[in-house]
Every structure is written in C-alpha cells, then in structure tokens.
Specification:
Distance between the termini: 28 Å
Number of domains: 1
Strand order of the largest sheet: 1-3-2
Radius of gyration: 13 Å
Structural class: alpha/beta
Helix content: 25-40%
Order of helices and strands: EHEHHEEE
Strand content: 15-25%
Shape: globular
C-alpha cells in the first residue's frame, strides 16, 4: 500500500489537533505530528510566525516527518498553523 501524508492546516484554535488526533486514532499503522509540539520543543515563547527561532521548529518537524515516513507508517498526519512549500515560496 502506498503511504499517505495528510496535511491539516488552518488558523489558530480551529481544531487541527483534534482532527489530527481523531484521524490518528481511526487509522491503524499511522503516526501523528502536531507542529505545535515542535515549536514548543526549544521551550521558547515565540512572538510571531516570523520569529527567526521558528527555523528550529521547522528542522524538528522535517526530522520527525522523515522518520515517520521511513518507519513504514501507512498514514502520516501532520497538523500545523503554517505550512509552506519552498518550491513556490507560498504559505498555504
């Protein structure tokens, strides 16, 4: 079976974590990463999404998501306020 990556994005407090958790609990052989967990990992209070310290969270997210895909999970759910595509320089 081909691996599925499901990205969940939206504004603050709209239920991304709740949806991601429900999906994770509903699908076997799955992993779930909430982007907030990675931003909190350095235990810093961020002022805005343009805070340069967010790059540490981005590195953490990339590392964890890569591992989840390498470990053979059928579904990898990822929830985050900000999702970017470096190929296009867009936030969506």
């Amino acid at each position: 079976m081909k691996k599925k990556r499901i990205l969940i994005s939206g504004s603050l407090c709209v239920g991304k974590t709740a949806v991601g958790t429900r999906l994770f609990e509903s699908y076997g052989n799955s992993a779930f990463l909430d982007g907030d967990w990675c931003w909190r990992a350095p235990f810093v209070h961020l002022v805005s999404v343009t805070d340069s310290r967010l790059c540490n969270g981005d590195k953490s997210m990339a590392f964890v998501l890569s591992n989840d895909l390498d470990f053979g999970f059928a579904y990898v759910f990822f929830a985050s306020v900000v999702l970017t595509d470096p190929r296009f320089g867009k936030t969506f």
